[in-house]
Write a structure and sequence with these properties.
Length: about 70
């Protein structure tokens, strides 16, 4: 069973939701940001090292699902 990730600082830009989490794989426990499309059937998600990069990805994401 995979480890549970607790997200903080959630925000939504269009259909994309952005959340900050603490990376447990990294020994130093750095914080990272994830951007995830919430449309059914899209499946797009990505991790970023800064909130600004995640927000830029959310603004430029074009969902193929209509």
């Amino acid at each position: 069973m995979p480890a549970r990730i607790n997200f903080r600082s959630l925000m939504k830009i269009g259909p994309v939701q952005i959340g900050t989490y603490r990376d447990r794989r990294d020994r130093r426990g750095r914080t990272k940001d994830a951007a995830v499309c919430t449309n059914d059937g899209c499946g797009w998600s990505s991790d970023y090292s800064s909130s600004t990069a995640a927000q830029l990805a959310a603004r430029s994401h074009r969902c193929r699902v209509s």
